[in-house]
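Sharing a chain and its predicted structure for anyone who wants a worked example. Both blocks are below, sequence first, tokens second.
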Amino acid sequence: MTQPAITLDGPNLRRIADVVLADLLPPRLRRLWLSRMGRMAIAQAKKNVREQKTVDGSPMAPRKHKEVRKKMLTGLVKSRWLGMDLPDENTARVKFFRNAGVVARKHQLGGRAAGVTRTGINYRGTFDTSKIPASLKGKHFTLESGKSGCSANQAAMLLRLDYLPPYVRKGIPAGGADAVEYVMRRISRKLAIFLIAEGVKRTGKTKVPDNTPARPFLGLDEPQMVEMGDAIMAGIYDRFKAANHKNLLK
């Protein structure tokens, strides 16, 4: 699926580089000019992702799980997913290939604005997963039977589903962290997988809006387009390489 994220069209060109010059360029040079502008837009997008900033220069919204240190969107701006074409002699289209376009649109606009939905579980419990302490993540207790206890995430999911055996339910402490540890010490990993599957069957699933925050990384503001347009127009007969025009990137 292809999802163009930015389009440089005829009307924009007339505001950018000077209507007379743009109209007087022969078709071949006009396509060349458009192609170079598109490549500069891609170069700016790669720089934004590298520096983890949006088009307006503000920091990108952080990951949902802040302990993951990997940068956002690095895969999307690779050449195998991000490129451009010239649908006609007046348009340069920067686009994403295959399903990368869906992911790019979700981050560019934000999940809700892009109309993206996901499958959510109809949890019956009210347990807040933010109450899982970091000290319990990745930790497993050994049960009296010798089996390995369930993970903190599994325990939290059972609490949210409100689907626990009676012998566990009756002794759950009130505190969030204490409740998670209590379940971890009494439910094995194998039993937790079974209970979670059964609990999801009971509560069912539904479509809910995707809350991915907007991280607009692809785009140029008009002053930047004017500056790029003028510079590229001045060197239209020269060899072009986006890396040689780093001074035009924000």
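Comments welcome. The CA atoms of residues 107 and 140 lie 35 Å apart.
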